[in-house]
Amino acid sequence: MKSKTITTDVNVPKNASEDRKFWSDLILEEAKQFCLNTALHGYRFIVLPKRILLERVIWAVICLASLISALTLLCIAWFSFQEHPTVSVTDSTHNPIWNYDFPAVTVCNLNKISRKKAFQLARNLSVTNGKNPEELAWNIRVLFQLINNDNPDIPAENYTILSRLLKDSHVDVDEALRVLAPTCKEMLLRCQWKGEERRCESIFEQIRTSEGFCCSFNYFALKNHSFTGIFASKAPKAPRRVSACGYQTGLEIVVNNDPEDYFATHIPSIGYRIFIDNPYYYPNDYLQNVLISMRSTNLIGVDPQFTYSTESLRYLPTSVRHCIFPEERALLTYEYNYHNCVEECKMNMTIKYCGCVPFKYLHLKGDNQVVCSLEDISCLAEYRPSIEISTQSHNFSTTDAQGGYVWDRTKCSCLPDCAITDYTTEKSSGVLRRLNSINDLTLFGGYQIANQSVVRVFFNDLVAKKIRWDVVFNWHTLLAYYGGLLGLFVGFSFVSGLEIIYFFTVRLFTDATKKIKTQTKPKKRGRRSKIIVHPVTYQNLDPTRLIIPSDIEIQRYKTNAYFFN
């Protein structure tokens, strides 16, 4: 008798609806297994068997509320970080002062043109043109406007006349201003540094500033700085420092006031303007300065403060951190900092509007640039407000082809420094009297004190502040903060994250593959065989040879079968 092979029907998805039902059922099964096995808090109580519906709903609401609360707090923290990504923290209030550079001290005479020198120049000019020397001397005063071009009421013909006189006598305007300005030797009578008397020419040098020619100590703003004093070979290569505090441990100078020599001043007073700030700053009107009056003793105490940025801040774009590291932008001549950037920008804006380089930026002049002459003063005065306004712009871009910074040259685009040392000064003064002094020979010996003034610059304390500028969340604080919130509300951990990935990727597709293979594999029915008892064999069967089990053996078999099942 032949047997037949019969293939059974399988539940394999044959259309889109069946396919969706197949995957939805599979995903629900995996979600149930995930809830039963995960370490997340409360999820297994939602799918445990033999639980009433109300209990499942309550646990589902608790888990959902915890997850929403955690995500809400995470979003609030992230938006707060985007609005305020950086924070300043006081790293130390006891950082020793020998870790700080001593500030630059720039001494500027309020008198920009010496009367004696102006009349001497006038006499020299009168030889070639035959004009009255006194009248020429008063005409020379308009040279002051090359320094402070803030008086647009001066007639333009005054500039034209003086310019023609200087050209006819082959006198350069810049050289004329240098000759007319009081020299460092005339302004500084005695100098002491850290209690030791020094020749003033050995520690001070004449530099250009926004106030004209001044004498500066500890000045290193230029990239290729070269000391021009008489002891240039002994000049330090980096800013000087001190290891003590108090007025006897810093810089002490005696300045000479000569009221009879005053001829052109910007401030209606007699004395000096002392700029005290970072050694790498170009001296300009933005810096801290104090006025020194005639016949006075002045104590100027300085408190330094160093602000530095962590490496985490470098990974934020400049539009977010609002500061710049020195190596991220280079200036033409200066070491980069905000003040120097503003000054270079003002020079560029002046070139744009007037086509010349102002007198105070002559050391920045390029090969194809000209120096502003007397005829350009009217232009400088006209565009001065626009130039000052342009320095407040911060338009910039950071998306060039090389991944570097692109700066809008029509704006200043100057950002504060990410690492800088600032100095705060406080001044006290008194009348200079030598009558009752018991140690006047240490600095004042040999001088008849009449119109002089004494200036002492020093550190107030042995320790100073150190400020750290950091991001609110770096990678490890962000990890700890987010991990703490998720762990507190839902019990989340890295293992929980791996469980989610495992159950809904690896295990999901593995189980789906196995199920599809199982259901699509053809199943064959076994052949139906009939038991055919041969009549002869049945007839030859000997009943006496059959072994029939007893009742006890049958009972023992039943007991063992029940035990193993």
Topology:
Elements: H1 16-37, H2 44-47, H3 53-83, E1 86-96, E2 104-109, E3 111-114, H4 115-129, H5 133-140, H6 156-168, H7 173-180, H8 184-187, E4 188-193, E5 196-198, H9 200-203, E6 204-209, E7 212-217, E8 251-255, E9 262-265, E10 271-277, E11 289-293, E12 296-309, H10 318-321, H11 338-354, H12 377-390, E13 396-397, E14 406-407, E15 420-431, E16 453-459, E17 463-471, H13 475-490, H14 494-520, H15 535-539, H16 551-564
Parallel strand pairs: 12-16, 12-17
Antiparallel strand pairs: 1-17, 2-7, 2-10, 3-9, 4-5, 4-8, 6-7, 8-16, 10-11, 12-15, 13-14
CATH superfamily of the largest domain: Acid-sensing ion channels like domains
Q: What would you report as the Rg, rounded to the nearest angstrom?
A: 45 Å
> How many helices does DSSP assign?
16
Helix content: 25-40%
Sheet with the most strands, sense and barrel status: 8 strands, mixed
Number of strands: 17
Strand content: 15-25%
Total count of domains: 3
| Bulk shape | elongated
Q: State the low-pLDDT regions, or none.
A: 1-10, 393-410, 531-538
What is the architecture of the largest domain at the second tier of CATH?
Sandwich
Please characterize this protein's 3D structure.
The protein is α+β, with helices and mostly antiparallel strands and 565 residues long. It folds into 3 domains: 114 residues, no CATH class; 376 residues, Acid-sensing ion channels like domains (Acid-sensing ion channels like fold, Sandwich), CATH 2.60.470.10; 30 residues, no CATH class. It is 36% helix and 19% strand. Helix 1 packs across helix 14, helix 3 runs antiparallel to helix 13 and helix 4 packs across helix 5. It is elongated, with a radius of gyration of 45 Å.
